[in-house]
Amino acid sequence: MQNRVLIFDLGGVLVVNDMFDALPGLMKATPGEDELKAKWLRSEAARKFELGGCSAREFSSAMVREFDLTVSPDEFAAAFAGWPKGFYPGVTGLLSQLRRRYTTACLSNSNELHWTAQVTAHFDRAYSSHLLQRIKPDREVFEFVTADLACRPGDVVFFDDSKPNVEAALDFGWQAHLTLGPEDVSRTLADNGLYP
Length: 196
Prior knowledge:
Layout: E1 5-8, E2 15-17, H1 19-22, H2 33-42, H3 44-50, H4 56-66, H5 73-81, E3 84-87, H6 91-99, E4 103-108, H7 117-120, E5 125-128, H8 129-132, H9 139-148, E6 156-160, H10 163-172, E7 175-178, H11 182-191
Parallel strand pairs: 1-4, 1-6, 4-5, 6-7
Antiparallel strand pairs: 2-3
Helix pairs in contact: 3-4, 4-5
């Protein structure tokens, strides 16, 4: 059991992120949440920013155009920077207990505005798309993280709130679970005999 590696997505899994609640309020047309998440995953601007390929200013300007926003790039950047609110209650205690038994890591499609030591310090390893220049659900990111952790794909238990990311991780050989928030994480850990 000790050779298991637990890898967590951040936003929507362990970290409160208001993005998909707040973004529609800045758009001229208001899509449903599933449609908005799909649009985000297809977004050239989001992908480029989360791969470290453009500045925050370039990203914000592109988002205003691509998502037909009603605010300026500066106003969008200020709102975007504030959408992650930190860990859900109880998450830091859970991670502390899990680190005593397993290697823990986070793997997030993130960016220079959201990636902070206040979050990453709670893991043995922390991986962000903008630093790796690799992004979920692309196979290369799962290959890189597995090699960097010097483990086998089957040793990894992965928690993510995005179905395409979970499906890609499963395809690669990780044990991947669609989880929405820390209660789902705790239940999935318990169902798999990993905690408590």
